[in-house]
Amino acid sequence: MIFFLIFLILILMIYAYFSTGRDILSPWLISCTMYLISIIVVAINDWNIEISLKTILTIISALILFGLGELIVRYTIGNKQEEFYLTIEYSREKALEIPKYILVVTSIFMLVVLYWYFNETYRISLIGGNPGGYSMMLKYARSASATNSINTILTLLLAICMSIAYVFIFIILYNIIYFGKRTQWKIFFIPLLLFICQLTLTTGRQVFIQLISTTIIMSYILVKYKSNWRGGNTKLLYIGVFSIGIFLAGFFALGFLTNKSFLGFSTTISLYLGGSIVGLNHYLQSPFSDSSYFGGHTLFGLYSSLGQMGFDIPKLNAPLDFFLIGNNGVNIYTPLARYIQDFSFNGMLLIQFFLGVFFSSALMFVKKQREIGVWIIVFSMFFYPIVESAIEERFFMLVMSFNGLFKAIGVLIVYKILKINSKIKA
Predict the structure, then answer these.
(1) Which residue has the higher pLDDT, 113 or 228?
(2) What is the pTM of this model?
């Protein structure tokens, strides 16, 4: 059955590729690709898993509804803008530069936040049972983070640091893609390196994956702008292969720091990429228990924000129950399991259709911009749920949340404060 599922998704991928005008940035195409990768991982591992017909119908139905939403947007809004895409030529006036005093102030700010975050992580690790010292700090901090949160002000400052990092990634990528490598731009990596140090203290891999995803999508869009949305696919392929290598190495390294990669490289990667498909198959046979709150398995980010605002709402846990793949515990089920549990099967299909409309509309909006700038950063940052579409729910967790709104506003403000020349027009 699993090879039948692979065949069906390949058919969908081919149709998605040609029906979207061979657009490799198509959210539908990327979503299909991510499901294909996850399913192939299940197929090549000897997990003795029998994928049910119900699981196959669920995945294919979800992808078809997602694609329907995207195609409706493309054949209405997209067609009206096609002539626009093919007639404008994007000029590169000059490389993006940041005043040195702003770079110094930004670096000092991020260094102070890093120092505070390090001390806060160590404090939480002590609560989690750390006998003392820093060697096992991340391991104990992770176990204690489910019931202990970092300082609220620090959380906001970390979100600002993320906004700063993404703006500097844009600056670095824009300068390299349009003007080549230059020695004087190496200084722009300082805030990015400080941000990566902050990521290692989160004790999780999700923010690291989001960083890689954002960088890849941002690179893709800038390359496509440079070619006026024509060609450039070979260079994009090189970027994708290189980024996947960085992702796999970083994913394992971060897991090693938090004592989650003790199973070995291939097993760790396989469980993450393929475990969600097995989880969905398991869920459809044995659903979760109902939440006492509407959408409790999906909208926990919203409920958490309301709790921080003073509403009498307990903290809802995002992680789901563990199940076994061999002797290994896994607790990822794809976003589809959460949607079905909270909103029924039909509700899941409606959400998938909405996601297709949302991300396709966002892509069309970015494509029509005459200025290469801040909206590319925001779009790339929020494209992450598509990259993780076959693994875990990220849209309601990261995009449709107060935290997501704050980060988007943060990018807009940082972009303005850094005094980037936004007049990079067609």
Answers:
(1) 113
(2) 0.86
